[in-house]
C-alpha cells in the first residue's frame, strides 16, 4: 500500500467516526432505501469544517482523495440492515456564500482541478443520456467477454486482446452485459437581476446518476464539484463535473414565512398600500401602476376544469409610454422582488429568446439542444419584457399561446415537447414615433398587433406632459432621494426619519418576498352572492354603455371579466383574506377602468373593444369605409388618379374628422395595397 493509500485509509477511519457523530440517522435511512429509492448521502460542507477544518482545504485541492475516503467510510459503515453501501455516493453540499463562486468571477485556468461551488442560473440543459462505466466486449471468434472500465473524459477504451483466445478481436460491444450511468449537461449563466459584469460568461456542468433532472431551466442553483479540463478541437475547455446541487428559492412557494413574519405582515394596517409604496421607491407617483404590479406578483388563482382546460391566474400588465417615464425602473424593481424572474429586451429578441426552440450547437456534445426562452425560464415567476414594441412580428406571434394557454410547443429536429410557461408578464414599450401624438389613433401608435395586446389584463398609458405642479413634485423627489442616499453613504447615523422614508422602503426585499409568498398561499372565494353579483352587474353595465343597437360599438369583450376576476382574487390574497369582498371588486374595477381610460377608447371617446382586440377601431372602420367610397366616386373624374388634397378635403367633410386622421387612413390603405399612387400626390383605389 502506497503512502497516499495509507493516508486515505487513515482518513476513511476518521470519517467513519464523523458519519457516526453527524449522520447516524441519515446513513440508516440510506441503508433502508438503497439503491432503489435513494443512491446518495448528502453531507454538509459546514459539518466537515466543524469536524476538521483542514479537511475542506484538502477537498478544494485534492477532491478525489477526500471523496474517496468519505465513500470508503460509508461503504465500511456498520449499518443495522444487510445492505452493501460500497457503491453509494457521498455528495458534499451546503457551501457558505463566502466560499461560493459566481459565474464569470473566477479564472478557469487557475481553478482547474479544484473542487468548487459555483452559483448561477440554469440557462439550458440537454436530454438525459447513458454514459458507460464499464463496457463488455465480446470476442467474435470465441465469445469470451472482456470488461473494460471507461472514463467519461476519454475516448472509448477497447481491449488489446481477447482474454480467452488471446487474439486481437474482432470484438463487438455487448450492451446487455455493460453498465451505464445517466448523465446530463446543463449550462449556468449569471442571474439576470444581478450585475452583468460577467457579460456572456457561462459554465457548463455535467450531472450524473441521481443528480440528472434535479434542476430545471430557470432554476437558481449552486453546483458543487471538480473543475475538469479537456482538449477539444485543438483548444481547451473547462467544465464542472458536478457532485451536488443546491436549488435556491426560485419560486415564492420556496420562501419560508415563519410565524413571526406572518404576525408582522398581518399587523399592517393596509398591506397593499404598504407593499405598493415599497416598490420602486426612487420613482415618484404611478400609484395605480405600482398597485397593479403588486397584484400581479400576488396573482389570481389558476383554475383547472374537469375537462382538462384551465383558466390562468397570472396577471399580465403592459405599460406604454413616452421616453424617460421610468418604465424600465418599474420593471427592474418588480424583477428584484420576484425570486424567479427574467429581464429581457425586445431589441434583437428571437423566437427562442422569448419562448423556446430547438437549436443546433455543440453544447453537451448534442447536435440539437432545447433552448428555453424568457417565458419558459420564468415559469412560476415573472418575465419583464422591456421595449416590447421592438420585438419582431414572428416572435410576437410565438408569444400568443405562451401568454394565454401558458404553454410553449416545440416540434423540430426530432424534439417534440410542450414546456410550461405559467409566467406573469410585465412589459413596457414606447410609441411608434417616440412620443404619443394626441391627433393619431392609439392603436396606430404602437407596433403591436391586437392579438398580443388583448392578452394583457391591464394596459397603462404614460404620457410625459408638462405640468408645473407634477414636475415640481417629481424633481423634488429625485433630488431628495439622491441627497438622502448620499448622506447615508457618508454617515448613516445622521439620517432623519424623513430621510429614511426617502431611501428605505417600509418593506425591504426579503420582507416583500415574504409578503407575496404569504399572500399567494390564499385561495379566496366570493364572500357572498352579492359580491359576485356586483362584479357581474358592472361587467354587463359596461357592455351596455354604447347601447345595444346593431351598429353600436362593442365596449369590452368578456375577456375583460376574466381579467377583473383575477384582479379581485389577487386583491383578496394581498389582504391575506380567504374571501373576495366588495373592496376587492372595487379595486379590480378601478384598475380595469384606468386601463380602459388609457387604452380602451376610440377617437370619439367611446369605449371600444376593437382598440385592443382588432387592428382597427369601429370609428376607424367607418372612416375607412367613407374614404373608400369617396375615392371610388372621385376617381371617375380623373384619369391619373385623385389629387390627394381634394380627396382629404372631401373625406374630412364627409366623415366629420380631422385632416390628419384622413392622412393616417390613406397611409394605412396604401400599406395594405388597397390604394396606389399612379402619379405623385394622386391616388386610385385597387
Give your account of this protein's structure.
This protein has 686 residues and is an alpha/beta fold. 38% of the residues lie in helices and 22% in strands. A hairpin with a 7-residue loop joins strand 16 and strand 17 (368-372). Helix 8 (271-277) packs across helix 9. It is globular and about 105 Å long.
Count the domains.
4
Q: Specify the number of helices.
A: 24
Q: If you average the pLDDT, what whole number results?
A: 85
Strand order of the largest sheet: 4-8-9-11-10
CATH superfamily (homologous) name of the largest domain: P-loop containing nucleotide triphosphate hydrolases
Structural class computed from helices and strand pairing: alpha/beta
Q: Would you identify the regions where 5 or more consecutive residues have pLDDT less than 50?
A: none
Describe the global form.
Answer: globular
The CATH first-level class of the largest domain comes to: Alpha Beta
Specify the helix fraction band: 25-40%
Rg calc: 32 Å
CATH topology of the largest domain, what is it called? Rossmann fold
What fraction of residues sit in β-strands? Answer: 15-25%
What's the main sheet like?
5 strands, mixed, barrel
